[in-house]
Amino acid sequence: MAKHLAHRHKRLWAYALLGLAVVGGLSFLDHQGHGLYPGSEMRQFHGRTLSVMRVIDGDTIDLWDAARSEQVRVRLWGMDTPELARPRQNRQAQRLAVEAMEYVQSVCDGQAVRIELEPHRVRGRYGRLLCYVWLPNGNMLNEQLLLRGLARVDSRFAHQHANRFVLLQEQAKYDRVGLWAKKKPTTP
Predict the structure, then answer these.
(1) CATH number of this structure's domain 41-180
(2) Which of 25, 116, 123, 155 is the most exposed place for a label (fewest CB within 10 A)?
(3) Which residues pair with 13 in a beta bridge?
(4) 99 with 150: CB under 8 angstroms?
């Protein structure tokens, strides 16, 4: 009897481990964009070209997905621009926040841009898609903001362009542009 119970216990453990392996494998494939679930955001958005509807600030834009007839809010991955004023929260705009937003508007407002996602983290804390945004001229918007000193590297999460982003920020510091420019003295 004890032998029979021990064999049954081993069999239950084997089924449990097999079930975990199957679920883990399917989850991994889904995150890579190969999942069976048709709603996979990697599959829906990675590598797609969408139209810029509106620039929210320097690192957040609304895109129009014509194929799905819906608006998609994206956050530029791996960098952070200064925050705009928030009167309701009694917060003033950070230095160069308006300039960052205006730069983004000038290069992509109304344009078709291509977006790329990272499979290990598709959405951020506020539900926005985390993207690299490629402009019609072939430049990556994320990189251009860093190179012009209109953004800082956000190193909280690992991503494929992390080292390059740090180098671009160092170049902006060296060139003393944007956030890294010497502040002009105020005159009385």
Answers:
(1) 2.40.50.90
(2) 25
(3) none
(4) yes
Residue 116 makes CB contacts below 8 A (sequence gap 6+) with: 46, 47, 131, 132, 134
CA 57/CA 129 separation, integer angstroms: 15
Backbone angles phi, psi at 116, to 5 degrees: -130, 145
Q: Which ranges constitute the DSSP H helices of the chain?
A: 2-31, 41-45, 97-108, 141-147, 162-175
* Predicted confidence (pLDDT) per residue in 24-34, tens digit: 666 655 544 44
In whole angstroms, what is the distance from residue 127 CA to residue 62 CA?
Answer: 13
Confirm if 78 and 102 have CB atoms less than 8 A apart: no
Q: Which residues pair with 114 in a beta bridge?
A: 49, 134
When mean pLDDT is compared across 9-13, 21-25, 81-85, 175-179, the lowest value belongs to 21-25
User: Measured between alpha carbons, how far is 145 from 65 in angstroms, rounded to an integer?
Assistant: 24
Compute how many other C-beta atoms are within 10 angstroms of the C-beta atom of residue 82: 21
> Comparing C-alpha atoms, which of 105, 138, 122 is closest to residue 46?
122
Q: What is the predicted pLDDT for the residue at 179?
A: 96
Token duo for residue 163: 């080292």
Helix extents (H) in 53-140: 97-108
CA distance 170 to 149: 9
Place of tokens 């510091």: 173
